[in-house]
Amino acid sequence: MKKLLWTLMDRLCRFTPDRTPDTEPEEVCMREEAEFRYCQLTQEYQALQRAYALLAETSGGTYDPEKEIRNREQLLSEISRYQTRVTDLESALKQQGLDVQWVEEKQALYQRNQQLVEKVRQMEAEELQLENEIQDIRDQNELLEFRILELEERERRSPAINFHQLHFPEGLSPLQIYCEAEGVPDIVISELMKKLDILGDNGTLSNEEQVVVIQARTVLTLAEKWLESIEVTKSSLQQKMLDIETEKDLFSKQKGYLDEELDYRKQSMDQAHKRILELEAMLFEALQREEAFMMEGLKMEGGRLSETLTDEERDGLQRAMDQWKRSVMCELRERDAQILRDRMELLTLTQQRIKDLEEFIEAQKRQIKELEEKVWSRNTDHLSDPTLKKSLTL
């Protein structure tokens, strides 16, 4: 771009008109033509300046055409070199008895290994999340258990209250209802109050008797109010007990739900852990296959999964595979042991049933023998009767 600008400047300098007054017509024509070209070159120069400014703005810096050309040539040379290398590698593979399809299978195996690694990481993240959720559920379960224990302790310490709900109909006092509940229905509290009022107003009584009557009426009134307050307190206590029972049932149900969710989370975590072990075992087997391929003499460039893993990660995969194998063998042994325990239990039940039947048969035999002895003794006694002998002789 700079060279092009310098060329335009040279052309402008070269076609600058000579402004002498003694010019001929040809020189005038040449001067007009030069001025026209000068204007045209000026416009082109301005257009190139605008294009250069736009290019510099879009490219984010100074634009060097020579550098771009060199980069392009370098990229083309690298492409041709890599194409030549690919051709050489394909020919080398064909000479070794291998084909491109095997290489594609190798690449597919590498991609599969990468997917397994991603799945292992994802399952580990899910396992960590499940462990956190299980810990939260355990904490909630402990809080609910503590709350239930508090409610049970409060219920144990509080006395058992089994009141009968008594309602106060209109016209009846609590004292009247209490008297009827205690089996004294003959006393009518309202009439008794009236009689006490009459006796208190009776002038024939002495002052001391009138004071006693007034005090008795006051005591009955206070007793009635006290019974009414007791009934209100009893109702509130019953309502509180119902609320506590409801809260206890709610906590028990919530605890049951949390226990079920905890079991479900544990099962999910166990399944996720088993899946992680399976994926790690598959990954380790894939690595072993890759090492076998490398031992055969295949040397290809590019990323390999064995190169991306360190020795510690490979040892971890080996331990995970051994752990998975041990867990599988342990499950098989537990299953066999469970089958053996079931069969032993069935055998024990069968032997116990046979023993019971043998005892029942022996008891039946003894009973039959006793019946035979009873019949034989009865027949013997009957034959030894003298009247029977006399009748037989006749």
TrEMBL record:
This is Janus kinase and microtubule-interacting protein C-terminal domain-containing protein. Belongs to the JAKMIP family. The keyword Coiled coil applies. GO terms for molecular function: kinase binding; microtubule binding. The keyword Nucleotide-binding does not apply. It comes from Eleginops maclovinus (Patagonian blennie). Residues 72-154, 347-374 form a coiled coil. It comes from the Eukaryota. Keywords: Coiled coil. Residues 19-162 form the Janus kinase and microtubule-interacting protein C-terminal domain.
